[in-house]
Specification:
Blueprint: E1 5-11, E2 15-22, E3 28-35, H1 42-59, H2 62-65, E4 68-75, E5 78-80, E6 85-88, H3 101-106, E7 113-117, H4 118-129, E8 138-143, E9 147-153, E10 156-157, H5 189-192, H6 194-206, H7 213-216, H8 226-234, H9 238-262, E11 266-270, H10 272-276, H11 278-291, H12 294-299, E12 301-304, H13 311-323
Parallel strand pairs: 1-4, 4-7, 8-11, 11-12
Antiparallel strand pairs: 1-2, 2-3, 5-6, 8-9, 9-10
């Protein structure tokens, strides 16, 4: 059998997604998903992560699962790559800080384990199998629970002096503004992430603003998912359009500033909001070109993720196979 396979695990603030990936094609041949529920603690999370990994392996054809050679993990937060540990994940809660991912997965699977930041691994996926193919200098920006980026310069992913390059969600777009999940003020993530848009919507609903979202939310529910926003927008919901437009304005300003500083040939944008609501990216892209220096804006390509929701899983598998 010529094809080789790796297991990729993508860990975000709301979901755990695992997949067995054909490393020649980038195709996922078996997968599993579960809600993350980080608030339930490290033990629950660890058991859930192992369960997702085992279910993904079981879902793949036997000839694929038996040829899995490595496991790659992408997780939202700051990573100690040498020890395969999550140091801190603001969008996962403090209960998972200093989580030894390599150790806990290594106890269950006799395979090499490689751990990276979730956006870092998604960038690998786009670089080798998605919208980044053929580009030497590009930036991947993913909008979800938070906002993060991967920076590729001359074909290499830039880690930075402390291994945290690409934390664009924490660039300041409004000095002294809203409090971010990390504790800082005025960060892009506090204005343009799905979490930020949800906070705005819930506050307006609490004030009595009419919205189709009331029909979507169950009593006491505080999570507004991208699909819910898309459905409300299809029904011409004024509040949803207002909140998404504001978020897209800030995202566009951030993208334009990033483009001016790094001058990439391409900016790839992904994440649940982008996949579910094309208008969000279209508005942000228009604002980015206006915000960037004119010579930068005219040459800038802003495109949607080629792999969509699969970028993290595919990239984690590629990272494991090439960095183990």
């Amino acid at each position: 059998m010529s094809a080789t396979f790796a297991l990729g695990l993508d860990i975000g603030g709301t979901k755990l997604y695992g997949g067995v990936v054909n490393l020649e094609t980038g195709h996922i041949v078996g997968s599993a998903r579960k809600r993350t529920h980080p608030e339930r603690g490290a033990k629950f999370f660890s058991q859930r992560l192992v369960a997702v990994a085992k279910e993904a392996l079981a879902a793949a054809p036997e000839q694929a699962s038996q040829h899995v050679t490595t496991i790659g993990v992408g997780i939202a937060g700051q990573i100690d790559r040498a020890h395969g540990m999550l140091i801190s994940g603001p969008n996962l809660g403090q209960g998972l800080d200093n989580l030894p991912l390599s150790t806990l997965l290594g106890a269950e699977f006799s395979l090499p384990i490689v751990v990276g930041n979730d956006v870092e691994v998604a960038t690998y996926g786009e670089q080798h199998y998605g919208a980044g193919r053929g580009a030497r200098d590009f930036i991947c920006v993913f909008v979800g629970t938070g906002i993060g980026a991967g920076i590729v310069s001359n074909g290499e992913l830039r880690a930075g002096a402390t291994g945290t390059a690409g934390e664009v969600g924490h660039m300041v777009v409004h000095y002294g503004g809203r409090i971010c999940g990390c504790g800082g003020r005025g960060h892009l993530e506090a204005y343009a992430s799905r979490t930020a848009i949800t906070h705005v919507l819930l506050a307006e609903l609490g004030r009595g603003r009419p919205s189709k979202l009331r029909e979507e939310l169950k009593d006491g529910e505080t999570v507004i998912r991208s699909g819910m926003l898309a459905r409300a927008l299809e029904q011409h919901d004024a509040l949803t359009l207002e909140a998404l437009t504001e978020g897209a304005e800030y995202l566009g300003a951030g993208l334009g500033s990033i483009a001016t500083v790094y001058n990439p040939e391409r900016v790839i944008v992904g994440g649940g909001l982008v996949e579910a609501i094309p208008l969000f990216l279209a508005h942000a892209a228009a604002r980015a070109r206006e915000t960037a220096l004119p010579v930068v804006g005219r040459a800038l390509q802003i495109v949607k993720s080629g792999l969509g929701d699969d970028a993290g899983v595919v990239g984690a598998a590629w990272m494991a196979a090439n960095h183990a």
